Amino acid sequence: MPDVFVTQENPVPGERPTEPAAKTPAQKPRRQRGTRIPARVQIMGWLVLVMTAGLATVVVLVAEFEYRAIDQRVNSGLAQDSQEFRQFAAAGTDPATGEAVADTWDLFDRHLSSQYPDRAEVLLGIEAAGEGNFNSLQQADESLRHVQLDDQVLSRIVEAPQTSGTVDTTAGELRWLRVDVLPRGGGDQPNAWFVSGYFVDEARSEANDTVRTLAVISMVALVLAAGVSWIVAGQILAPVNTVRKAAARLTEADLTRRIRVQGRDDIAALADQFNSMLDRLERAFDTRRQFLDDAGHELRTPITIVRGHLELMGDDPEERAEVVRLCTDELDRMARIVDDLLLLAKAEQPDFVRPEWTSVPELTSDIDAKVRAIAPRAWSLEAMGEGDAHVDAQRVTQAMVQLAQNAVQHTQPGAAIRIGSSIGPETVSFWVTDSGPGLSPGDEARIFDRFVRGESGARDGTGAGLGLAIVKAIAVAHHGEVRVLSQPGQGATFGFELPLRGGEE
Ligand SMILES: Nc1ncnc2c1ncn2[C@@H]1O[C@H](COP(=O)(O)OP(=O)(O)OP(=O)(O)O)[C@@H](O)[C@H]1O
Ligand SMILES: [Mg+2]
């Protein structure tokens, strides 16, 4: 019987020790760590493992308890037998008759005949008969009547140095306790022995039966638990598998599939999240497709115009010069669209703006000087914020030039255009105010999108609709916003508001 139990050092199914993933860009991407064992098997494995440990502990403890109880019962029975014999021997008279005991053999005879041994119990009075032979008197339970202990067994009991022990007999293992009887005439060598014994096999086999039954029940419970956990884990993980399969089926061409969400648990939440991610992805792909369509369309128009002019071009040198001028115009327009598109593509990269601490008054007067060169208008510098802002001066200038170009396109020569900047507690603003026709109602919401031109349109009709998209991209890259204020027929104010310390951590 082990006296130490449950030192579980079982390997956890599929788990490997985790190491910090030190991955430098120079290193090749390592193979993915972690287990390949399916989650369902892992869940069942863990449950079976824990249950096995628990049930094994219970079985071992019960077995230990049962065997100890048997030992205690047997030992106290044997001790009581020898105690009774000692009392009988000490009295020296038979309590039943009051007669004096004649000799050792008589002592055994009288004592044993008054005893009623328990089941599997045997009481012996033994006398040495010389040359390794013994005379013995035996009192045993009914079930042991046929059992006769031979001289060999008896000699092993009486010659043992200690007064208790176990010995193997033909009837199984015998646990014994010995009382040495000294000769009456004197002498310290015992020549007779009283032995109480107990055949423990039967009691042990009863305990074994109990333990075996318990073990079988445990096994059945284990198998049941494994089965149930397999089914339940399968049900719980089914939506995860659906998500996985749906993800595997997704292609750029077909982002329309969605997962059916059932229940309200965290797995349902996962499916829900996945669906909204798909929504966003689908919208992003749609926007990109639309963008490519529009870009293609915008670029095709100048190509068509150039080709048309070239095909119809005659020999008249004046006409030729005119065609060259028109074609060059169109090619310039194309080049401008391509530049704008490249700029917008770049706006999606993280280093699109490189903010630095910039003096707002200096930046505003630089912008003022630059826009005045665009076209002859009644330019005026309306306001100037005092202080520094953490912005990308080049990109801010680029945005303001776009706004100024729009203002020029929507006004007559000599019309008033005001530019300005201001600093608030948290933000810095830049704006351009013109005295043109203003925006048509409802245009505010959409004119900042790519390739969108308003109802009023540019005066010369050559705009591609990318200018305000660029302004918005620059504002967003600074974590800022665009602003527009317009009344039809009363001019418009376009501007943007950036956080003062936008690019700073
Ligand atoms: N100052 C303004 N006054 C009135 N309408 C304007 C003004 N600025 C822009 N808009 C409207 O917003 C639309 C979009 O402007 P945006 O700058 O994006 O494109 P665009 O000027 O037409 O072309 P691009 O700037 O690419 O050459 C314009 O077509 C116009 O209808
Ligand atoms: Mg423009």
Short characterization:
The protein has about 500 residues and is of the alpha+beta class. The chain is about 45% helix and about 15% strand. It has a 5-stranded antiparallel beta sheet with strand order 2-1-5-4-3, with helices on both faces. Strands 7-9-10-12-11 form a 5-stranded mixed beta sheet.
Walk me through what this model shows.
The chain folds into four domains: 1-15 and 36-91 and 201-249, no CATH class; 99-199, Beta-Lactamase; 266-343, Signal transduction histidine kinase, dimerisation/phosphotransfer (DHp) domain (Helix Hairpins); 352-499, Histidine kinase-like ATPase, C-terminal domain (Heat Shock Protein 90, 2-Layer Sandwich), CATH 3.30.565.10. 47% of the residues lie in helices and 16% in strands. The chain contains nine helices and twelve strands. The strands form three sheets. It has a five-stranded antiparallel beta sheet with strand order 2-1-5-4-3, with helices on both faces. A five-stranded mixed beta sheet has the order 7-9-10-12-11. Helix 1 (39-91) packs antiparallel against helix 4, helix 4 (201-249) packs parallel to helix 5 (266-312) and helix 5 (266-312) packs antiparallel against helix 6. The chain binds adenosine-5'-triphosphate (ATP) and magnesium ion (MG). Residues 402, 405-406, 463, 467 line the site of magnesium ion. Residues 406-407, 410, 434, 436, 438-439, 447, 453-454, 456-458, 463-469, 492, 494 line the site of adenosine-5'-triphosphate.
